[in-house]
Design brief:
This protein is mainly α and 61 residues long. It has one domain (2-60): Helix Hairpins (Orthogonal Bundle), CATH 1.10.287. The chain is built from 3 helices and no strands. Helix 2 packs antiparallel against helix 3.
Length: 61
């Protein structure tokens, strides 16, 4: 998964960050209603965003 993130181009990495942020937003909405069963998704998505942003920074240099 980590290696796959590094191999993507900048545009797809940016789209991945946006998709993860939307997913976190949806998780927050569902947690208000009480529908979130897997709370570890927050952490997984935050790490995925960090990996994508790190790969974006590496590609820009």
């Amino acid at each position: 998964m980590k290696n796959n993130t590094v191999e993507k181009d900048l545009r797809s990495l940016h789209e991945e960050v946006i998709a993860c942020r939307k997913e976190i937003f949806n998780l927050r909405l569902n947690s208000l209603v009480g529908q979130v069963k897997d709370t570890s998704q927050y952490r997984k998505l935050r790490k995925q965003i960090a990996r994508a942003k790190t790969a974006m920074t590496m590609k820009q240099k």
